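Protein entry
_____________
===
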Amino acid sequence: MSLRGKAAIVGVGELKPMKTPPAGKTGWGLMAEAARMAIEDAGLNKNDIDGMMVESPVTEMSLGPASLLAEYLQIPIKYGGSAMIMGASGAGQILRAASAINAGVCETVLCVIGEIMDPSRWAQMMVSIPMAGAEGQFEEPFGPPGAPSGYALAAMRHAHEYGTTDEQRARVAVDQRTNACANPKAIFYGRPITIEDVLNSRMITTPFHLLEIVMPVSGAAAVVVTTEERAKTLRHPPCYILGAGECLTHSSITYSPRMTLSPVKTSAATAFQMAGVNPRDIDLVSVYDCFTITVMITLEDAGFCPKGESGPFCWETDMTYKGKLPVNTHGGQLSFGQAVLAGGMSHITEGALQIMGRGEERQVAKHDLAFVNGNGGILSEQCSLIFGSEATL
Protein backbone atom coordinates (compact mmCIF):
# COMPACT_ATOMS: atom_id res chain seq x y z
CA MET A 1 0.00 0.00 0.00
CA SER A 2 1.39 3.39 -0.98
CA LEU A 3 1.01 6.58 1.06
CA ARG A 4 2.14 8.75 -1.83
CA GLY A 5 0.30 12.07 -1.66
CA LYS A 6 -2.46 10.70 0.58
CA ALA A 7 -1.64 13.08 3.46
CA ALA A 8 0.14 16.39 3.98
CA ILE A 9 1.62 18.54 6.73
CA VAL A 10 -0.40 21.77 6.89
CA GLY A 11 0.61 23.42 10.16
CA VAL A 12 3.85 23.79 12.14
CA GLY A 13 4.41 24.87 15.73
CA GLU A 14 7.85 25.02 17.29
CA LEU A 15 9.16 26.69 20.43
CA LYS A 16 12.49 28.45 20.42
CA PRO A 17 14.99 26.09 22.11
CA MET A 18 15.84 27.06 25.69
CA LYS A 19 19.25 26.39 27.22
CA THR A 20 17.94 26.99 30.75
CA PRO A 21 14.89 24.99 31.88
CA PRO A 22 11.90 27.38 31.91
CA ALA A 23 10.73 28.11 35.46
CA GLY A 24 7.41 26.59 36.39
CA LYS A 25 7.03 24.73 33.09
CA THR A 26 6.59 21.03 32.40
CA GLY A 27 7.28 19.05 29.25
CA TRP A 28 3.55 18.54 28.84
CA GLY A 29 2.99 22.28 29.10
CA LEU A 30 5.56 22.95 26.37
CA MET A 31 3.91 20.32 24.19
CA ALA A 32 0.49 21.90 24.67
CA GLU A 33 1.92 25.27 23.62
CA ALA A 34 3.53 23.81 20.48
CA ALA A 35 0.26 22.00 19.69
CA ARG A 36 -1.72 25.24 19.92
CA MET A 37 0.78 26.96 17.62
CA ALA A 38 0.58 24.18 15.01
CA ILE A 39 -3.23 24.12 14.98
CA GLU A 40 -3.41 27.90 14.64
CA ASP A 41 -0.71 27.88 11.96
CA ALA A 42 -2.85 25.50 9.90
CA GLY A 43 -5.82 27.84 10.20
CA LEU A 44 -7.78 25.22 12.15
CA ASN A 45 -9.22 24.98 15.65
CA LYS A 46 -8.83 22.17 18.14
CA ASN A 47 -12.22 20.68 17.24
CA ASP A 48 -10.81 19.87 13.79
CA ILE A 49 -8.30 17.46 15.34
CA ASP A 50 -9.49 13.85 15.53
CA GLY A 51 -6.16 12.03 15.90
CA MET A 52 -2.98 12.43 17.95
CA MET A 53 0.53 11.00 17.87
CA VAL A 54 2.29 11.89 21.12
CA GLU A 55 5.58 10.93 22.78
CA SER A 56 5.90 11.32 26.55
CA PRO A 57 8.63 13.63 27.82
CA VAL A 58 11.32 11.20 28.92
CA THR A 59 11.42 12.66 32.43
CA GLU A 60 7.59 12.78 32.76
CA MET A 61 6.76 9.35 31.39
CA SER A 62 3.15 8.33 30.77
CA LEU A 63 1.90 4.96 29.53
CA GLY A 64 -0.90 6.69 27.62
CA PRO A 65 0.59 9.91 26.21
CA ALA A 66 -2.05 10.50 23.51
CA SER A 67 -4.96 10.15 25.91
CA LEU A 68 -3.20 12.33 28.47
CA LEU A 69 -2.62 15.15 25.98
CA ALA A 70 -6.15 14.75 24.59
CA GLU A 71 -7.47 15.21 28.13
CA TYR A 72 -5.11 18.14 28.74
CA LEU A 73 -6.24 19.91 25.56
CA GLN A 74 -9.85 18.76 25.90
CA ILE A 75 -9.91 17.18 22.43
CA PRO A 76 -11.78 13.88 21.96
CA ILE A 77 -9.96 11.80 19.32
CA LYS A 78 -10.73 8.81 17.11
CA TYR A 79 -7.11 7.69 16.87
CA GLY A 80 -4.21 7.98 19.30
CA GLY A 81 -0.76 6.53 19.35
CA SER A 82 2.95 6.84 19.94
CA ALA A 83 5.89 5.89 17.72
CA MET A 84 8.29 5.08 20.61
CA ILE A 85 11.40 4.70 18.46
CA MET A 86 13.57 7.22 20.28
CA GLY A 87 15.14 9.82 17.97
CA ALA A 88 13.20 8.40 15.02
CA SER A 89 9.89 9.06 16.81
CA GLY A 90 9.21 12.36 15.03
CA ALA A 91 9.48 10.77 11.59
CA GLY A 92 7.67 7.68 12.89
CA GLN A 93 4.76 9.85 14.01
CA ILE A 94 4.36 11.23 10.48
CA LEU A 95 4.43 7.74 8.94
CA ARG A 96 1.77 6.53 11.38
CA ALA A 97 -0.39 9.63 11.03
CA ALA A 98 -0.36 9.35 7.23
CA SER A 99 -1.15 5.62 7.48
CA ALA A 100 -4.13 6.25 9.78
CA ILE A 101 -5.45 8.98 7.51
CA ASN A 102 -5.03 6.77 4.45
CA ALA A 103 -6.90 3.98 6.24
CA GLY A 104 -9.80 6.32 6.92
CA VAL A 105 -9.79 6.02 10.71
CA CYS A 106 -9.24 9.76 11.18
CA GLU A 107 -8.83 12.91 9.09
CA THR A 108 -6.55 15.36 10.88
CA VAL A 109 -3.74 14.26 13.20
CA LEU A 110 -1.73 16.35 15.65
CA CYS A 111 1.86 15.07 16.05
CA VAL A 112 3.75 16.52 19.03
CA ILE A 113 6.89 15.93 21.11
CA GLY A 114 8.54 18.01 23.85
CA GLU A 115 10.95 17.89 26.79
CA ILE A 116 12.34 19.89 29.69
CA MET A 117 16.12 19.51 29.83
CA ASP A 118 16.70 19.40 33.58
CA PRO A 119 19.86 17.53 34.69
CA SER A 120 18.37 16.68 38.11
CA ARG A 121 15.32 15.05 36.50
CA TRP A 122 17.53 13.11 34.10
CA ALA A 123 19.68 11.76 36.95
CA GLN A 124 16.57 10.58 38.79
CA MET A 125 15.13 9.02 35.64
CA MET A 126 18.32 7.10 34.82
CA VAL A 127 18.34 5.57 38.30
CA SER A 128 14.65 4.62 38.29
CA ILE A 129 14.39 3.01 34.82
CA PRO A 130 16.21 -0.34 34.50
CA MET A 131 17.80 -1.07 31.13
CA ALA A 132 16.89 -4.34 29.41
CA GLY A 133 18.86 -6.72 27.19
CA ALA A 134 22.54 -6.34 26.47
CA GLU A 135 22.43 -2.64 27.39
CA GLY A 136 21.28 -3.38 30.91
CA GLN A 137 23.47 -6.43 31.46
CA PHE A 138 26.74 -5.37 29.86
CA GLU A 139 26.96 -1.93 28.29
CA GLU A 140 25.66 0.28 31.07
CA PRO A 141 27.45 -1.43 33.99
CA PHE A 142 30.69 -2.39 32.25
CA GLY A 143 30.90 -0.97 28.71
CA PRO A 144 30.29 2.23 26.73
CA PRO A 145 28.39 4.70 28.97
CA GLY A 146 25.61 5.77 26.61
CA ALA A 147 25.34 7.36 23.21
CA PRO A 148 28.58 9.43 23.06
CA SER A 149 30.81 6.39 23.47
CA GLY A 150 28.68 4.25 21.18
CA TYR A 151 28.78 6.78 18.35
CA ALA A 152 32.48 7.33 19.02
CA LEU A 153 33.04 3.65 18.31
CA ALA A 154 31.21 4.05 15.01
CA ALA A 155 33.27 7.14 14.13
CA MET A 156 36.55 5.40 14.98
CA ARG A 157 35.57 2.36 12.93
CA HIS A 158 34.57 4.58 10.00
CA ALA A 159 37.97 6.25 10.14
CA HIS A 160 39.66 2.85 10.25
CA GLU A 161 37.70 1.40 7.32
CA TYR A 162 37.51 4.46 5.06
CA GLY A 163 40.15 6.94 6.21
CA THR A 164 37.61 9.52 7.40
CA THR A 165 39.35 12.48 9.07
CA ASP A 166 38.56 14.84 11.93
CA GLU A 167 38.54 17.72 9.47
CA GLN A 168 35.92 16.04 7.30
CA ARG A 169 33.62 15.46 10.28
CA ALA A 170 34.19 19.04 11.39
CA ARG A 171 32.90 20.31 8.02
CA VAL A 172 29.46 18.94 8.92
CA ALA A 173 29.39 20.98 12.13
CA VAL A 174 30.63 24.13 10.41
CA ASP A 175 28.06 24.06 7.60
CA GLN A 176 25.23 23.39 10.02
CA ARG A 177 26.38 26.29 12.19
CA THR A 178 26.28 28.49 9.08
CA ASN A 179 22.65 27.43 8.64
CA ALA A 180 21.91 28.18 12.30
CA CYS A 181 23.25 31.69 11.80
CA ALA A 182 20.38 32.26 9.36
CA ASN A 183 17.79 30.94 11.84
CA PRO A 184 16.84 33.29 14.70
CA LYS A 185 15.35 30.37 16.66
CA ALA A 186 18.62 28.44 16.75
CA ILE A 187 20.42 28.23 20.08
CA PHE A 188 23.69 29.25 18.33
CA TYR A 189 22.19 31.95 16.11
CA GLY A 190 24.78 34.56 15.16
CA ARG A 191 27.76 32.49 16.38
CA PRO A 192 29.64 31.10 13.34
CA ILE A 193 32.47 28.60 13.75
CA THR A 194 35.43 27.39 11.69
CA ILE A 195 37.07 24.00 11.18
CA GLU A 196 39.76 25.13 13.62
CA ASP A 197 37.15 26.03 16.22
CA VAL A 198 35.74 22.52 16.05
CA LEU A 199 39.11 20.80 16.25
CA ASN A 200 40.25 23.07 19.10
CA SER A 201 37.10 22.51 21.16
CA ARG A 202 37.35 20.19 24.15
CA MET A 203 37.66 16.47 23.46
CA ILE A 204 34.62 14.71 24.93
CA THR A 205 35.09 11.10 23.85
CA THR A 206 37.64 10.20 21.20
CA PRO A 207 37.34 11.19 18.38
CA PHE A 208 34.50 13.67 19.13
CA HIS A 209 35.16 17.26 20.05
CA LEU A 210 32.55 19.30 21.90
CA LEU A 211 31.32 21.08 18.75
CA GLU A 212 30.56 17.73 17.07
CA ILE A 213 27.96 16.82 19.66
CA VAL A 214 24.31 17.83 20.15
CA MET A 215 23.36 20.87 22.18
CA PRO A 216 20.82 19.74 24.83
CA VAL A 217 17.90 22.17 25.27
CA SER A 218 14.32 22.36 26.47
CA GLY A 219 11.73 22.65 23.72
CA ALA A 220 8.74 21.25 21.87
CA ALA A 221 7.50 20.95 18.32
CA ALA A 222 4.26 19.90 16.64
CA VAL A 223 2.81 19.48 13.17
CA VAL A 224 -0.70 18.93 11.85
CA VAL A 225 -1.18 16.22 9.21
CA THR A 226 -4.40 15.95 7.22
CA THR A 227 -5.91 14.54 4.04
CA GLU A 228 -4.84 15.61 0.57
CA GLU A 229 -8.30 17.05 -0.07
CA ARG A 230 -8.42 19.12 3.10
CA ALA A 231 -4.82 20.28 2.72
CA LYS A 232 -5.68 22.07 -0.52
CA THR A 233 -8.26 24.25 1.27
CA LEU A 234 -5.97 25.59 4.03
CA ARG A 235 -3.79 28.68 4.29
CA HIS A 236 -0.30 27.32 3.53
CA PRO A 237 1.03 25.36 0.54
CA PRO A 238 0.86 21.72 1.73
CA CYS A 239 3.91 19.59 2.38
CA TYR A 240 2.89 16.19 1.01
CA ILE A 241 4.18 12.88 2.35
CA LEU A 242 5.30 11.10 -0.82
CA GLY A 243 7.20 8.19 0.66
CA ALA A 244 7.96 6.56 3.99
CA GLY A 245 10.03 3.65 5.23
CA GLU A 246 11.16 2.23 8.55
CA CYS A 247 13.77 -0.29 9.63
CA LEU A 248 14.87 -1.43 13.10
CA THR A 249 17.75 -3.89 13.34
CA HIS A 250 18.92 -3.80 16.95
CA SER A 251 18.74 -1.93 20.24
CA SER A 252 22.18 -2.38 21.75
CA ILE A 253 25.31 -1.50 19.79
CA THR A 254 26.60 -4.89 20.98
CA TYR A 255 24.28 -6.48 18.43
CA SER A 256 24.80 -4.00 15.61
CA PRO A 257 25.23 -6.04 12.40
CA ARG A 258 27.96 -3.64 11.28
CA MET A 259 29.07 -0.55 13.15
CA THR A 260 29.42 1.68 10.08
CA LEU A 261 26.18 0.59 8.39
CA SER A 262 22.78 2.02 9.35
CA PRO A 263 19.27 0.58 8.80
CA VAL A 264 18.59 3.80 6.89
CA LYS A 265 19.83 1.82 3.90
CA THR A 266 16.54 -0.09 4.02
CA SER A 267 14.22 2.66 5.30
CA ALA A 268 15.44 5.17 2.71
CA ALA A 269 15.16 2.66 -0.14
CA THR A 270 11.54 1.98 0.82
CA ALA A 271 10.73 5.69 1.03
CA PHE A 272 12.38 6.50 -2.31
CA GLN A 273 10.61 3.62 -4.04
CA MET A 274 7.21 4.70 -2.69
CA ALA A 275 7.81 8.31 -3.73
CA GLY A 276 9.07 7.33 -7.18
CA VAL A 277 12.20 9.47 -6.87
CA ASN A 278 15.89 8.91 -6.08
CA PRO A 279 18.60 10.81 -4.16
CA ARG A 280 19.62 12.77 -7.27
CA ASP A 281 16.15 14.36 -7.35
CA ILE A 282 16.30 15.67 -3.78
CA ASP A 283 16.58 19.43 -3.22
CA LEU A 284 17.35 19.39 0.52
CA VAL A 285 18.14 16.95 3.30
CA SER A 286 16.92 17.11 6.91
CA VAL A 287 18.46 14.26 8.91
CA TYR A 288 19.14 13.38 12.52
CA ASP A 289 22.51 14.72 13.62
CA CYS A 290 23.19 13.84 17.24
CA PHE A 291 26.86 13.58 16.21
CA THR A 292 28.69 14.56 13.03
CA ILE A 293 29.25 10.93 12.08
CA THR A 294 25.48 10.31 12.15
CA VAL A 295 24.98 12.71 9.25
CA MET A 296 27.83 11.17 7.27
CA ILE A 297 26.70 7.56 7.63
CA THR A 298 23.10 8.59 6.85
CA LEU A 299 24.17 10.35 3.62
CA GLU A 300 26.03 7.22 2.56
CA ASP A 301 23.36 4.69 3.36
CA ALA A 302 20.53 6.81 1.94
CA GLY A 303 22.42 6.94 -1.37
CA PHE A 304 23.66 10.52 -1.57
CA CYS A 305 27.24 9.31 -1.87
CA PRO A 306 28.91 5.87 -2.14
CA LYS A 307 29.58 3.87 1.00
CA GLY A 308 32.71 5.05 2.75
CA GLU A 309 32.97 8.30 0.75
CA SER A 310 31.04 10.67 3.02
CA GLY A 311 34.30 12.15 4.26
CA PRO A 312 35.42 13.56 0.88
CA PHE A 313 31.77 14.21 -0.05
CA CYS A 314 31.10 16.41 3.00
CA TRP A 315 34.45 18.16 2.61
CA GLU A 316 33.81 19.08 -1.02
CA THR A 317 30.04 19.71 -0.93
CA ASP A 318 28.49 22.97 0.22
CA MET A 319 25.81 21.75 2.65
CA THR A 320 24.61 25.20 3.68
CA TYR A 321 21.19 26.53 2.70
CA LYS A 322 22.84 28.22 -0.30
CA GLY A 323 24.79 25.15 -1.35
CA LYS A 324 24.59 22.27 -3.77
CA LEU A 325 23.01 19.89 -1.22
CA PRO A 326 21.53 21.81 1.74
CA VAL A 327 21.65 19.66 4.88
CA ASN A 328 19.81 20.56 8.10
CA THR A 329 19.02 24.10 7.06
CA HIS A 330 17.73 25.00 10.54
CA GLY A 331 21.13 24.21 12.08
CA GLY A 332 20.35 20.65 13.14
CA GLN A 333 20.69 19.31 16.64
CA LEU A 334 24.31 20.41 16.62
CA SER A 335 23.44 24.11 16.36
CA PHE A 336 19.65 24.51 16.55
CA GLY A 337 19.42 22.34 19.66
CA GLN A 338 18.13 18.93 20.70
CA ALA A 339 15.23 18.63 23.13
CA VAL A 340 15.75 14.84 23.38
CA LEU A 341 13.05 13.16 21.24
CA ALA A 342 11.73 16.59 20.25
CA GLY A 343 15.12 17.20 18.65
CA GLY A 344 14.19 14.69 15.97
CA MET A 345 10.94 16.56 15.38
CA SER A 346 12.91 19.68 14.38
CA HIS A 347 13.97 17.87 11.20
CA ILE A 348 10.29 17.32 10.39
CA THR A 349 9.32 20.93 11.02
CA GLU A 350 12.26 22.26 9.00
CA GLY A 351 11.63 19.94 6.07
CA ALA A 352 7.97 20.98 6.01
CA LEU A 353 8.72 24.70 6.26
CA GLN A 354 11.23 24.48 3.41
CA ILE A 355 8.78 22.62 1.15
CA MET A 356 6.13 25.24 1.98
CA GLY A 357 8.57 28.02 1.06
CA ARG A 358 8.57 29.39 4.61
CA GLY A 359 12.27 29.07 5.42
CA GLU A 360 12.78 32.86 5.60
CA GLU A 361 16.46 33.87 5.28
CA ARG A 362 17.56 30.23 5.05
CA GLN A 363 15.01 29.29 2.38
CA VAL A 364 16.43 26.92 -0.21
CA ALA A 365 15.99 28.21 -3.76
CA LYS A 366 14.63 24.94 -5.19
CA HIS A 367 12.42 23.21 -2.64
CA ASP A 368 10.14 20.65 -4.26
CA LEU A 369 11.60 17.48 -2.70
CA ALA A 370 13.12 16.82 0.73
CA PHE A 371 14.63 13.72 2.28
CA VAL A 372 13.93 13.59 6.03
CA ASN A 373 15.29 10.96 8.42
CA GLY A 374 14.98 10.12 12.11
CA ASN A 375 17.53 7.99 13.96
CA GLY A 376 16.97 6.14 17.21
CA GLY A 377 19.52 4.44 19.43
CA ILE A 378 23.04 4.10 18.07
CA LEU A 379 22.35 3.85 14.34
CA SER A 380 19.63 1.31 15.13
CA GLU A 381 16.06 2.59 14.60
CA GLN A 382 15.49 4.49 11.36
CA CYS A 383 12.47 6.16 9.79
CA SER A 384 12.82 7.89 6.41
CA LEU A 385 10.37 10.24 4.71
CA ILE A 386 10.14 11.98 1.34
CA PHE A 387 8.36 15.35 1.45
CA GLY A 388 7.11 17.01 -1.72
CA SER A 389 5.40 20.16 -2.92
CA GLU A 390 2.18 20.17 -4.96
CA ALA A 391 4.32 20.28 -8.10
CA THR A 392 5.56 16.75 -7.35
CA LEU A 393 2.15 15.07 -7.23
